[in-house]
Amino acid sequence: MAGMTKFKAVCAYDGTDFHGWQSQPGGNTVQDFIEARLKTIFKAKTRIHGSGRTDSGVHAKAQVFHFEGNWSHPPADLLRALRSGLPAGIQVVRLSRAQKGFHARFSATGKQYRYRLYEGFAPPWDSRYCYSLGTRKLDSDAMSAAAAVFLGEHNFTAFGANRGDGSEDNPHKDMRRVDVHRNGGKLMIIFEGSGFLYKMARSMAGTLIDVGLGKLSPDDVATILAGARRTEAVTTAPAKGLWLERVYY
Questions:
Q1: Catalytic choice (17, 55, 139, 179)
Q2: Pair 207, 230: CB distance under 8 Å
Q3: What is the pLDDT of residue 165?
Q4: Which residues make Cβ contacts (< 8 Å) with residue 100, sequence separation at least 6?
Q5: 3-state secondary structure the chain
Q6: Residue 55 a catalytic site member
Q7: What is the pTM of this model?
Q8: What is the pLDDT of residue 167?
C-alpha cells in the first residue's frame, strides 16, 4: 500500500505466562499483544509475521518479526511507542526499516536454540527458565556422543510433531551445531540448524536427556533418526527449558 513502510523488529519474552507466539482465538499470545499495541499506534489492524512459532512456555531472546505501517517519524520513535504498551514479559529490543523483499520467516537461513538443564533443584529466580532434574544425574559425555548423531542433513520426522492444523513442513533439515556444555550442575544444549520442525528442539533435548539418564544409547538415537518416524521412544522435554537465542539472515 502507498505510504506503507516495512519494519523489522527483534523481541525478547518470558514465555511462562503466554500461550506461545502465534495468535490464537483465545488470545494471550505474544503476537496478540504486539498486534494490539500496533493497532493502537497505527489506528488500524496491523499483522506481524514472525520468524517461526514458539510453544506455550518457551522463551525467546531474539525472536524476529516484520510488519508494515504508515509511519513518517524515525524508527526509534516507533520503538519507544511499541515498548510502552506491552506486558512486562515482552520487550521489543530493536526495530529498523526493512527492505521490501525481507520476510522474517522466509528470509531466515537458520536458527539457534538453547536448552537449559539443572541437576538438583534450581533456585526460585531461575526455576521458570530451566528444567530441574532433582536428584537425577546426567552423563554429559554420553549426551555429547549422541549429539553428534544429529549433525548434518537428515530427515528429522522422528523428532517432529503434528501441529493438528493441517500444516506441513519439509522434514529435511541441516543441523550445523549440537553441543552439550556442563558447568557444575548446570547443563546447556545448543542446537543450531537451517530450521526446526514443530517441537523438534524440545524432542531432541528430551532424547539427549534420556541418553544422559541411561535410558537410551547414542546408537539408539541413530536408529531413531534413521527410522524417520515418530515413536514413543522420543521424549519431549518441558517447554520452560527452551530458549530461541538467534535467527540468522
A1: 55
A2: no
A3: 63
A4: 6
A5: CCCCEEEEEEEEECHHHCCCCCCCCCCCCHHHHHHHHHHHHHCCCCCCEECCCCCCCCEEEEEEEEEEECCCCCHHHHHHHHHHCCCCCEEEEEEEECCCCCCCCCCCCEEEEEEEEECECCCCCCHHHCEECECCCCCHHHHHHHHHHHCEEEECHHHCCCCCCCCCCCCEEEEEEEEEEEECCEEEEEEEECCCCCCHHHHHHHHHHHHHCCCCCHHHHHHHHHHCCCCCCCCCCCHHHEEEEEEEC
A6: yes
A7: 0.94
A8: 64
Residue in the block written with cell 545448543: 190
Residue-level pLDDT at 166 = 57
pLDDT for residue 2: 53
Q: Which domains does the chain have, with CATH numbers?
A: 5-97 (3.30.70.580), 112-248 (3.30.70.660)
Low-confidence stretches of the chain (pLDDT beneath 70): 1-3, 164-167
Residue with cell 514465555: 15
Q: What is the pLDDT of residue 17?
A: 94
Q: Which residue has the cell 528429522?
A: 156
